[in-house]
Design a protein that fits this description.
The complex is a heterodimer.
Chain A lengths: L6 E3 L4 H9 L3 E3 L5 H6 L7 E4 L10 E3 L3 E5 L4 H6 L1 H6 L1 H8 L4 H6 L2 H7 L5 H8 L3 E5 L5 E5 L4 E3 L2 E2 L5 E8 L5 E7 L9 E8 L2 E7 L6 E2 L1 H6 L4 H4 L15 H18 L5
Parallel strand pairs in A: 1-3, 2-3
Antiparallel strand pairs in A: 4-5, 5-10, 6-7, 6-10, 8-9, 11-12, 12-13, 13-14
Helix pairs in contact in A: 5-8
Chain B lengths: L2 E8 L2 E8 L4 H8 L18 E4 L2 E4 L12 E3 L12 H8 L9 H15 L6 H8 L10 H10 L29 H5 L15 E7 L5 E7 L1 H4 L4 E6 H4 L27 E2 L5 E7 L2 H10 L1 E6 L6 H5 L15 E9 L2 H6 L3 E12 L8 E7 L4 E6 L4 H12 L6 E4 L17 H10 L3 E4 L2 H7 L3 E12 L5 E11 L12 H9 L8 E9 L14 H19 L3 H8 L6 E2 L5 E2 L4 H12 L1 H13 L3 E13 L12 E7 L5 E5 L8 H13 L6 E5 L16 H28 L6 E4 L2 E4 L5 E3 H9 L4 H4 L9 E6 L19 E14 L4 E12 L6 H20 L16 H4 L9 E7 L16 H17 L14 H18 L4
Parallel strand pairs in B: 1-5, 6-17, 15-16, 19-20, 25-26, 32-33
Antiparallel strand pairs in B: 1-2, 3-4, 3-5, 6-10, 7-9, 7-11, 8-10, 12-20, 13-18, 14-15, 14-17, 18-19, 21-22, 23-31, 24-25, 24-30, 27-28, 28-29, 31-32
Classes of the chains: A alpha+beta, B alpha+beta.
Amino acid sequence: MRPAAFEFLRPRTIDDALAAIARGGRPLAGGQSLLPVMRLRDTEPTALVDLDAIAQLDGVLRCDDEHLHIGAHVTHRAISEHPEVVAEFPWLSEAARGIGDVQVRNLGTVLGNLCWADPRANMAVALLASDASVIAAAPNGARERIALGEFFMGFRRNVLGSRLAVAIVVPRHSGARGSYLEFSRQPQDLALVNVCVVRQGELMRIAVGGIADVPVRLQAVEDAGMAALEHTLTRAHYAPVVDHHGDADYKLHLAGVLARRALAASGARV
Amino acid sequence: MNRFDVCIEVNGRAVSAQVEARLLLVDFLRDHAATKGVRVGCEEGACGACTVLLDGRTVKACLVLAVRADGSKVTTVEGLAEGRTLSRVQEAFISCHALQCGYCTAGMVISATAFLAERGAADFSDDDVRQALCGNICRCTGYNNIIHAVKVAAGRAQPLAVPESEQTSADGWIGKPVPRREDRRIVAGRGRYADNVGEAGDLHAAAARATRAHARLKRIDTQRAKAMPGVHLVITGEEAKAHWQPISPTMDLLDLKLPRRYPLATDKVVFYGEPVALVVADTPYQAEDAARAVVIEYADLPVNVAALEATNAVGDALLYPDWGSNIQVEFATTHGDIEAAFASADLVVDEHIGSHRFGAMPMETRVAHASWDVDDERLTVHASTQIPHLTRLMLARVFGIAETRIQVTAGDVGGGFGAKLSVDCEFLPVLGSLLTGRPVKWFESRSEWIHAGFAARDYHTRSRAAFKRDGTLIALDTDILADVGCDGAERACGLGMPINGGTYAPGPYRCGIYRTRVRCVVTNKAPYNAYRGYGKDLANLLIERVLDQAADQLEIDPLAIRRKNLLLHYPHQLVTGPILENGTARESLDRLAEVMDLRALRIAQATALGEGRYLGISLIPYIEPAGATFPGSLCQNYEAVGMRITADGSVQVLTGMQNIGQGIETSYAQVTADILGAKLGDVSISWGDTTAVPYGSGTYASRGAMFAVGAMIDAGEKLRRRMVVGAATLFGCADEAIAIKDGIISNATDGRTMSFAEFAYAAYINPGAEVVLDRADAPLLEAQGQYRHPQVSWKPDDKGRVQFYPTHANGAEGALVEVDPETGRIDVKKIWVVADHGVVLNELIMKGQIKGGVVQQLGGTLYENLAYDAHGIPLQKTLKEYGMPTVWAAPEIEIHHLVSRSPATRVGAKGGGEDGCIATSTVLMSAAEDALRPFGVKVMTSPLSPSRIRAMIEAAQSRDLKTGDQP
C-alpha cells in the first residue's frame, strides 16, 4: 500500500518548523521508521514537516572538551563510522551498526531514532546508558536540555510535544568503557531485548530496551551491583513489550543474560 | 492537496514531473522515469528490491518521498551497464547463478555494487558481505551463490560456470553447468515481470477487505468511496454475483467438500482480509484511498482458530453450514494388523509432532493485468502465475467466456513455490476491466499477501511407532490434523499436502504395517495453498522423529537404526501404494556421513561440550516424490510441447511450462540440443502465452524434467526422423549413414556435411519438402510432442492403491548446529545434502534449487510464522514480522549428487528441487535435540524460535529438578 495523502511542509527555519508542529504537523527526519507505518496506513498524519531544508539543523558530529555533539541530520551510517565515536564511544557505533541495514542507516538519523521512542530502539538504549541529553527548541525560542531519562513517555511516545529536537549531547568521560548487545531473531533485525552497559571506574550505567514501554536504566543494579540483577528483572518491576517472540519471563531472562554478557564485554568482572 | 515540481537525474537523464507529496520515489522511478527494473516487494522497506543509489548512497526507493529526492541523482540497476557491457557485479551474478526468479536481483546488484565500490581493494569477509546485503531479501537462492558472486566480482574467487559460448558439447549438453540465458535481461533490470505490463492511463484495482475473521455482512456502504477522486467503479460481492460464477476449484477428489465461494464475499466473510468489495480508480493511490473508505458492518460469528476445536464446531461456528462440519476432507487407510503389531512391540514410541503455519512468500506478490476488448469481445490477462493455461480455464469457467476468446500471458514470475497455482484475487481486475471496458491492473501489496494470501504446513499430528528391541520398525500409526485455513481446494490447492504426509510417512523404510488418518479442518484463516515440499516434509517428520526417539530409548546409534530399517532393494513399494522405482536410500546416507566427516564432527562435539558449548549433528534420509498427478485436479499426467526447425535452421521449442525462476530457457535448450543434435545456441524456448504454446498443465511438483522433457523427446524424435530421411535424400545415401550432432548433419559414407540452416532451407524452399521430405511422415519440420508418464496409475490395485507420483528422487541431508542454551538461539553452522535426482539437466541450476529450498525451509522452521490471535486477526503484517530469512540466516550448504537414472525417459531425469523443503525441518529438529541431549530436551514441534527452545530447556530442567537428575 501507499501512504494516505498529507500536507507537506518544508520550513526553512526552526521557528517555522515549530509553527508547523503547533498546527499538528509531524516532523519527518530520515523517515525510515515513519514512512513504513504510513505506507501500511497504521498512521495517517495530516501534515509532515520536512526537516531537510532547515539550515539551523546540521549533520555535524563533533567532540569538544566535554561533549560529543550529534546534529539533527547525523545518520546511523555517520555515527557508526566516525573515527572519534568508534574510538571513544564504541558502544554507540556498535548500536548504530546494528540498525536495520545499509540502506536504512544511510537515511535514518540518530535523533529520529530517539524521537521514534521505540523502547527497543538501538540508539535510545545506547544513548540512555551514555547519559545523553536531547537539546530541544521550544516555541518560546528557548533551548531546553532534556535528559534521556526524562525523554521517553511510553511506547513510541516522547515528551517533546510542541518542541523540536535539534541535537543530542553526550558527556565525555575519560576512561569510560562500554558494550552494546542486542538479541534479535536474526542479526540486524529489530531487537527483542537490547542492553548497553557503560562503566567509568566504579560507576556503572545499564540501559535495557524491550522490557518496558520505554528504555529503562537498571538503577538497582547500578547501585547494588550485579547481585541485584536476579530480583530486579522480574514482572513485578517490568512489563516487557508484548509480541509473539517470547513471553515476559523470557524477555526478562534475556535481559539478564545480555546484561551479564555486556558487563563482561565491557571489561568488568561479573 | 499540494503538488510539487520534481526533477531527478535518473541514470544521467533529467526526469521532471509534478507530483503529490505522497508519491514514493519507487513509483516516480517506475512510472515517470520508466526505470522498471526497480521492483516493489514489500511496504516496510524490508525486502530491498527497490534499492537504488541516491546521490551515491544505497537507499530503498519505497522509503523515500519523491519530493525529497528533488535535485538528486539516482542510479538504478539500468544505469550500471556501459552500453551493452554488463558491470562486473552483473556478470558475476550470471556466472555464479546468483539469481533464480530474479525479482530481488536489481536491488541486490545495487547493494553489492555499492559495497565493492566502498571497499575498494580492501580485504573483506563473508560477514562483511552479509552486513552489506542484509537489507536485500532473496527467497530463491539461499544466498550462498550471491555471496560467492560478490567475491567473484571483486576478483577474489572463481566463477561457478563459464559462459555458454566457452563450453563445448563433447558429451552432450545435458548436465552441463550452463549459465542461464534468462539472467542477462534480469541483471540488466529488464526482467519481464507482471507489474511492468500496461500503459499509462490503465486503471488500478484495490480490494476492500474484511477486518473480521468470521462474520455476517450486515451492510456495505460504498457511497463515500464512489464519490472519491479518480474512482471509476466500486462493486460489492452481492452486486458482482450477476457477473460471475463461484471460484473454479483446483481439485475435487476423495469426497472433499468445496466452499463454492465467489471472489468477493457475499453473505459473510470467512477469513480476515477476504475481499468484500472491488474498487477501480485512476491510480493505485486513489484505489487504496477508496478501498479504505468502503464501510462494512458486521455481525460477528464464532471464530475458529484452533484446529482441534474447529473439528468439533457446530452451528454458527461452521464456516460452511451445508457441510455439516468443518472437515474439508478426511482420508484413512490401514494396512496390516496394527493392533497386534503394537501389542507385540518391545518399544512403542508415541510423539506429538507438528509444523506451525508458514508459507511460500515469493518476493513478487500476485499481480494481474486484465484487458477486455469490447469490440472483439476478447479478454487478455497477464498474470504472475505458474499455470497460464489453467488460469485461462478458470477465467473461462468463472466468467462464462470461451477459452478461445481468452489469452493468458505470463512473463518472468518473481517466485512461485506452489503459491501461484491457483486463481482467486486475479478475478478482480478482470471483473474491473469487463465493467469499465478499460485495462485494469491489480498489484497485491505485501501486507495483503501476509494477511490474506496463502499459507501452508500447520500440521498437528501424532505418530506412533512399534519397534523390536534390536531397532526393527514393525509398525507405524499416524494421525494428522491439518489446519487448512478457510479452504485448501477451491481458492488454493494445499489439501493434498497432509494427504501426502499420511501416504508417504513410511518413507524409504521397510514398514509393512501402517495406519493413517488425515483430517483437513477449515478454520477462519487465509487459504491453504501448495508450498514446495507439499507434505513430503510432513512425511519425513512423522517417520524420522520417531526413529530418533527409538534410537535414543534403545540406545542405538541414530544412523544404525536407519540402516537397519532402510529398504533393501528397488523397486520398493510403500505399503500405501507408491512404488520407489529406483534410488540410493542407503548409499546417500552413507555418503552423507562420509562428506560430513561424521567421526570428526562427533569428536568436535565432545570437545565443545567440555567447553560448555552445545553442538548438534543430524543426518536424515528423505524421498522426493515428483510429478504429482491427481484425478479431479489441475495436476495431470500430460504435457505437450511444440518443436520446430525454422527455414533458417534455428530451433524453437514452445512449452506450456512456466518459467518461475527455475531456468527452463536454459535447461530445456540443453535437452533439445542433445535430442536433435542441434547447436545449443540455435535453440530457443518460448513459454508464457496461451495463444502461442501448446496446452500445458504448468509448473509444479518438480515435473518439468519428466513431463516437458518427455514431450521434447517425443517431438524431437519425430523431427530427427524427418531430418534423417530428408538428409539421406539430399545426400543420396542410406538413412543409416546420417549422423546429426552439434548442428551438423553428416553422411558417413562420403564425409559430406550440411548445416541445419542448409538442410532446413532445402526442406522448406529449395527444392522444398516435396522432394526433401517425400519419404517422411509429414511435410514440415514442425511437430507436437506429448508425454504421459508410464509410472502413473490411477487404477486401484487389489488393495485400492494407486500411483499418483511417477518418480521418487531421494537423498540425505545433514546439519551441524550450535545451540545457546541461555538464549535458546539455534545457530546453523552448515548443511550438507547428498541428492539423487537421476540425471540432472543442469548441475548449476539443480544445486541452486537445492540451496534455495534448504534456506526456505530453514527460514520457516526457525523464523517465519503466520500466527493469529484468538479473534482470527493475523499477528503479522510485514515481512520482518513474518520473519523472512535474510542473508544472515543462510549457512554454508554443501551439495553432492548420486545418479539413479529414471527408467521413464530417455534422458533419465527425475524431478528435483524440493529437497531442502522436505528434510530441513526434521534435520534442524534432530540436530537441535542432539545439541541439547545433556538437558534431555525433545524437539518435536516448530517453530524452533529462541523463546520456544529456551522454554523446552527450562521445562526439562524443572523436570530434572523434580526427579533430582542433573544435566
